[in-house]
Amino acid sequence: MKRYLAVTAGVLVAAAAGGAMMLKQRTAAPVSEPVKYAKPLPPAVTVSPARERTFVDRLFVSGSLVARDEALVGAQIDGLRVVELLAEDGDRVEKDQVLARLDRSQLDALLAQNDAALVRADAAIAQARNQIDQSEAMREQAAADLARAKGLAIGVITQQTLDQRIATARSSEAQVAASRSALAVAEADKRSREAERRELMVRIGRTEVRAPVAGIVSRRTARLGALAMGSADPLFRIIADGAIDLEAEVPEDSLAKLAVGMPATIELAGDCKTSGYVRLIASEVDKTTRLGKVRIALEPESRAHIGAFASGTVEVAHRVALSVPAAAVIQSANGSTVAIVSDGRVEMSPVTVGLTNGKAIELREGLALGQHVVSRAAAFLRTGDEVRPTEALDEHREAAR
């Protein structure tokens, strides 16, 4: 028992001694300094320089193809049948080219009658002239007889004979006047026959239906054997000079952007494209639809067909301007802003934007050439923020060109 107590006491003494030693060592150890943390780096941003780029503003239009000027060719003489057709749809014709012929047999008969009447008129004129010559000879004879009778004494010639000579002279004068009147009547009759002939020739000329202008036949309604009537539908429709326009309707706010002469690219049916230009802008806007009509002239050699649908774009603006990536612009109710980076600091600057071309946007005001902006603007950036700029990747550079 005594031995157990002694061992226990020894263990306690040893433990107490060890604890005292450890306390002494901990108290004697030097005090360490507080840990210092490194300053965080500014956020990294991708920047792009402001570059010059060509911007093109285009206006989409669509509508139907129409003839710029369409000539309606009808019969100028009624009641004659179509006996010959010389043109078909799609044919290109020249001015005064014969398109069809009408039956002229009745007019030929009238022409033959007129020829006979002219022959009779010529004979009547010749007869009247011969009658004048005869009357003038008789007048001269009567005048000579009267002169001789007046030179004789009363005893040599009776008063009755003298009176007869005077009456004969007067009668010959009257016959001369009558012969001249007959000649005037014959000549007037001939002029009337000649006028009838000219009228007949005009009517005969109208039996040939001719093209009033050069162009392309868009429609032929003439039929062989049909009666040609001036009040009926035209026999032919011709697109003057083959000129075709795209007639499109444009909203009134876009109408103000257009001007005569602006270039256009038109897409036709069948994946065909052709060029053109704005030829006519209507001065009136429809009150109901608020649309105005625009005529775009197509190039002469285009494969266009009137009545077909077509669409295209009109180049309303073409300019070189300052540009940045479209993602660099922050749009808000207060306007547009960009984050300019200079010497590692951010400056939020208001800008005026313009046209958009792919991934680039036009800046009209608020930025100078060569200034760097954050390529993808973020709402957390503020003026004065410190950033680490990184040059944009190739696609961003391409967008800014």
List keywords for this structure.
about 400 residues; alpha+beta; conserved putative lor/sdh protein from methanococcus maripaludis s2 fold; OB fold (Dihydrolipoamide Acetyltransferase, E2P); 4 domains; 6-stranded antiparallel barrel; 21 strands
Question: What is the topological layout?
Answer:
Elements: H1 2-28, E1 44-49, E2 51-67, E3 70-73, E4 80-85, E5 92-93, E6 98-102, H2 105-151, H3 159-205, E7 208-210, E8 215-220, E9 227-228, E10 236-240, E11 244-251, H4 252-255, E12 263-268, E13 272-285, E14 291-298, E15 309-325, E16 330-332, E17 335-342, E18 345-357, E19 360-365, E20 372-374, E21 388-391, H5 394-400
Parallel strand pairs: 1-21
Antiparallel strand pairs: 1-20, 2-11, 2-15, 3-10, 4-6, 4-9, 5-8, 6-7, 8-10, 11-14, 12-13, 12-15, 13-14, 15-19, 16-17, 17-18, 17-20, 18-19
Helix pairs in contact: 2-3
Question: What can you tell me about this protein's structure?
Answer:
This protein has 401 residues and is of the alpha+beta class. It folds into 4 domains: 90 residues, conserved putative lor/sdh protein from methanococcus maripaludis s2 fold (Beta Barrel); 67 residues, RNA polymerase II/Efflux pump adaptor protein, barrel-sandwich hybrid domain (OB fold (Dihydrolipoamide Acetyltransferase, E2P)), CATH 2.40.50.100; 79 residues; 77 residues, Efflux pump adaptor protein, beta barrel domain (Elongation Factor Tu (Ef-tu), domain 3, Beta Barrel). It contains 5 helices and 21 strands. Strands 2-11-14-13-12-15 form a 6-stranded antiparallel beta barrel. A 4-stranded antiparallel sheet has the order 3-10-8-5, with no helix packed on it. Strands 7-6-4-9 form a 4-stranded antiparallel sheet, with no helix packed on it. The two termini are 102 Å apart.
